[in-house]
Specification:
- The chain has two helices and 18 strands.
- It has an eight-stranded antiparallel beta sheet, with no helix packed on it.
Amino acid sequence: LKFNIEAVVEYIYRNIPVPVRDFTSDPYLIVIRSFDVNKPGFEVDQLKGGVAGGSILRGVIKLGDMIEVRPGIVKVDSNSNKIRVQPLRSRVITLNADQNPLQFAVPGGLIGVGTLLDPTLCRGDKLVGSVLGTVGTLPKVVIEIEIKYFLLRRLLGVVSEGKKQAKITKLDKNEGLLVNIGSSSVGARVVGVKDTLAKLVLVSATCTENGESIALSRRIDRHWRLIGWAKIVKGKAIKLEEE
């Protein structure tokens, strides 16, 4: 209804501190959108590369930088049933914040990174869940992770019999979970549990780093419900294929 918007803005301004920005580390951008900016009927010389959109967590991205997108192209070998991962590499052609062209982009806000990638690789948010950074600086791509998890006491937004919130039980071996890592939602299977430590095998390869916080959801009444969060202790890396 747009009532008291000024009061909300004032409260945010006075009580929520501006996060400390890291400009010196290697750039690390979480991709939350990707798209093809070409319109039907474009001539060959009018075609543009794919665009990845997201937020820079740390570092600075500049025009002309050589970048890498991980995990990139993920395939399953039909013969060996092994997962094959090929990162995507390109060059930064344009940088935009909304409609404003930039020479460089820093942490904070949403940034559109124009590249020379094949537009079909970016069409329809195909790169969502990936991370983008300079070549050779991104974390490893993993298929198996060990976590230290913390469960909520009760389910949020779910009322069981007696109008009380249901308690959350501990993780079980071979249980299926939905794991949110960065901007990706990945299915996972619990293969080992000991106290507050667990080992998960992911359905799809994901680029992540040790110490990253993730969210855990369990399927309850045909819906995925948040049950807790975790910190990644370590992961089993996949050997990457070069282009």
